[in-house]
Specification:
- By secondary structure, the chain is an all-alpha fold.
- The chain has one domain: Sodium/glucose cotransporter, CATH 1.20.1730.
- Helices cover 76% and strands 0% of the residues.
- It contains 22 helices and no strands.
């Protein structure tokens, strides 16, 4: 990774080259970097499957397929046509400075690489016996050093390597599981009955929240960045559809591995779900093969870690700091300063919230309602409204979800947060934001009719 990353050169004077590789991303490179970047939560996937069985797939995979197709057919081409660099650039162009900066702050939180950093800390701790905190600090150095020099071009080239390693790594463990443990009969005999059902014992409301969290795709800055960087207008849609095929294949591999882990360790209740994949590989695989499997997990996580560090650093340096100072953002020094800020912030989050699922759930619950309407509407002229309503919708949507989230933590029963009126915090936030948006949209229609009259 370091060899490829450090040998990649980027023009220090060109923001276009540093942020989007000069818009030269070909279809194969687009697919490799998108597939690897958007599938970094590998230990979280194991945690999902270990806790919920097949229903975990309906939470972490199926919803994303639905929204990925929406993104491919309705947003990808529009994004590429703008010739911009970031989501806040689009918000600035359509809704102005205040909306853009608020959007930048929210995206900075959304793009935090904290869950990937925490997972890497766990793997390094398992392999070398180093403390998790020190492991995370070491990983941060390896993840950022080549980005200072090579920018997005270096990020993509390293992603291509990681794309192959992640599939090779998980490709080696399933044959061993099947030959050593057995086929579906083994899983059926050792797994709890609800693990082979769609709900997995979870409530419909909980499942629906995770389904809606799949809309994360529509505002995910990694998707937008790669569309901005595509070589031509046809590449984004084609690339996303091809990427979806690879994600479906990889989801099958990881779900099966997670089920085998749960079945194998069914009588060992002390196993932490986050260790589902590493523990399975450690028990079943011989030397060399075990190394390949761990390498696959490392590549899967690292691909997302350095990609999202790069995105969040650009968000802080260009979209928040430079725009707040009314500067153009053409100075890549701000982006490089953002690398340090992003790395330290992600370390703090990973240290304070040591659970991948909790980090995903918390960030998605608070940020998605506030960003979704603003980002999607900015690409469709007929959906755009006055910036003051968008700003108010974003602010109150986030505030509502955040207050109810704190309410749940304060009044929690046991380990479970309390739900105000039985509702997950994401729903009131969405409703508030949508109501304000609809009011702004109706005002736009009313003023248009009035002016025509």
């Amino acid at each position: 990774m370091l060899l490829i990353g450090m040998r990649t050169k980027s023009s220090e004077d060109s923001v276009k080259d540093y942020l989007v590789a000069g818009r030269t991303l070909t279809l194969p490179a687009f697919v490799a970097t998108l597939v690897s970047t958007f599938y970094g939560g590998i230990l979280g996937v194991g945690e999902f499957t270990f806790n919920y069985g097949i229903s975990g797939w309906f939470m972490y995979a199926f919803p994303y397929y639905f929204f990925i197709l929406i993104f491919a057919f309705f947003l990808a081409g529009r994004i590429r046509k703008t010739h911009l660099y970031t989501i806040p650039d689009k918000l600035y162009k359509v809704y102005g400075k205040k909306v853009s900066i608020l959007g930048g702050i929210l995206i900075f939180f959304l793009a935090t690489p904290a869950p990937f950093l925490f997972m890497m800390g766990i793997l390094i701790n398992m392999i070398f016996g180093i403390g998790i905190s020190l492991s995370m600090l070491i990983v941060l150095v390896f993840s950022t050093i080549f980005l200072f020099k090579g920018g997005f071009r270096a990020d993509v080239r390293v992603n291509i390597l990681e794309f192959f390693l992640m599939f090779i790594g998980f490709g080696v463990i399933l044959p061993f599981c099947f030959n050593i443990l057995g086929g579906f009969e083994y899983l059926e005999s050792r797994l709890p009955q609800q693990f082979l059902t769609v709900s997995g014992g979870s409530s419909f409301q909980y499942l629906f929240v995770w389904f809606f969290l799949g809309s994360w795709v529509l505002i995910d800055p990694a998707f937008h960045q790669r569309c901005y960087a595509a070589k031509n207008k046809k590449t984004p849609r084609r690339g996303i559809i091809i990427s979806l095929i690879f994600w479906i294949i990889f989801d099958f591999m990881t779900t099966m591995a997670g089920l085998y882990s749960k079945a194998y360790f069914s009588k060992e209740n002390l196993l932490e779900p986050l260790y589902a994949f590493p523990a399975l590989g450690d028990k079943l695989l011989p030397p060399l093969v075990k190394g390949i499997f761990f390498l696959g997990m490392i590549a899967t996580i690292m691909s997302s870690l350095h990609s999202y560090i790069f995105i969040s650093s650009n968000t802080f340096g260009r979209d928040i700091f430079a725009r707040f100072k009314n500067e153009s953002g053409e100075n890549v020094l701000y982006n490089r300063t953002g690398l340090v800020i992003s790395a330290l912030f992600s370390f703090a989050i990973a240290y304070l919230i040591p659970s991948v699922i909790t980090i995903w759930y918390t960030i998605g619950t608070l940020i998605i309602p506030a960003l979704l309407i603003a980002v999607v509407s900015s690409y469709f002229e007929k959906l755009q409204i006055h910036s003051k309503y968008i700003f108010l919708a974003m602010l109150l949507s986030f505030s509502t979800s955040f207050v109810l989230f704190l309410f749940g933590l304060y009044y929690k029963t046991g380990s479970q947060p309390a739900l105000f009126l039985g509702l997950e915090p994401i729903y009131p936030g969405l409703v508030i934001g949508l109501l304000i948006y609809l009011f702004g949209y109706s005002r736009r229609k009313f003023l248009k009719v009035e002016s025509e009259f």
